[in-house]
Design goal:
By secondary structure, the chain is of the alpha+beta class. The protein is 16% helix and 39% strand. It contains four helices and 19 strands. The longest helix is centred in the N-terminal third of the chain and has 15 residues.
Length: 280
């Protein structure tokens, strides 16, 4: 549609949640609509601003804002936990309230302050094979899938599809090779986010992630949600976990109401302007 790609310089924010970084545009007044090609150019770390995901804020009839999420490859996704915390912090400051509601493709999410951190209710995990989705009927708590040293994964949908593999040592897994192979495996018709997780005891989990459409990122909030669910199903944690990612720590809880709560930091990097009319 590209209703607003004129030659005016457009303000944006650069933010990150534990190193998972975002370009955030405010399109609430003009419904800014970027194409996949434009997103790829903006997301390029050599020729653009650089990001894992590009976020556009749109007006919402049911929430304080609608959050559109596009991966670095231009593909659109329904959920991003770290971006939700960043947008939550923007709205909490902007509106001066204790709690805000964010509409996403995965549904309505709420964000609030928890000390210096932001807590987001990420909603309910989906565990039926049709909801992941998988290409065939399979036990999502113990997938009949082996790729190299990875096997017996757990599939969870947290607004987007995830598969979680538990391993003795995350450092021994060549995620750069195995991540894209599993992301594009025929078992996952919509592709999949790939997590490798090491149980370090006492509710601590070491986590690395290959994100669908973005590659290895320093953190992925929805993957951390899938991980606390998967670890709970395997009996490794009691529905709570401290998850250490490449970029920092998230505090996770799968509560009695079947909602996953995610608490973590957000960071502002800088604000800038860019001429969107100059993009291809």
């Amino acid at each position: 549609m590209n209703r607003t790609l004129n030659t005016c310089r457009r303000p944006f924010r650069k933010m990150h949640g534990l190193g998972n970084d975002f370009i955030i545009f405010d399109g609430r007044t003009d419904q800014l609509d970027l194409t996949e090609a434009q997103v790829r150019q903006l997301a390029s770390r050599n020729r653009g601003i650089g990001c894992d995901q590009l976020i556009t804020l749109w007006p919402s009839e049911t929430a304080d804002v609608f959050m559109r999420i596009q991966n670095a490859d231009g593909s659109e996704v329904a959920a991003c936990g770290n971006a939700t915390r960043c947008v939550g912090d923007i709205l909490l400051q902007e509106l001066g309230r204790d709690r805000v509601t964010i509409e996403t493709g995965a549904g309505l999410l709420t964000a609030c302050r928890d000390g210096d951190l932001i807590r987001v209710d990420m909603g309910t995990p989906l565990l039926d094979w049709r909801d992941i989705p998988l290409a065939q009927d399979m036990d999502t708590a113990d997938l009949d899938l082996s790729v190299g040293p990875l096997s017996h994964g757990v599939a969870v949908n947290m607004g987007n599809p995830h598969v979680v593999f538990f391993v003795p040592d995350v450092a021994a897994i060549v995620l750069e090779t195995l991540g894209p192979e599993i992301e594009n495996h025929p078992l996952f018709p919509e592709r999949v986010n790939v997590s490798i997780v090491e149980d370090r005891g006492d509710g601590h989990l070491r986590h690395r992630v290959w994100e669908r459409g973005a590659g290895i990122t320093e953190a992925c909030g929805s993957a951390a949600c899938a991980t606390v669910v998967a670890a709970s199903l395997r009996g490794l944690v009691d529905r709570k976990a401290i998850i250490d990612l490449d970029g920092g720590t998230l505090h996770m809880a799968w509560d009695a109401d079947n909602h996953v709560q995610m608490t973590g930091a957000v960071s502002y990097v800088y604000e800038g302007q860019i001429d969107l009319g100059s993009l291809a």
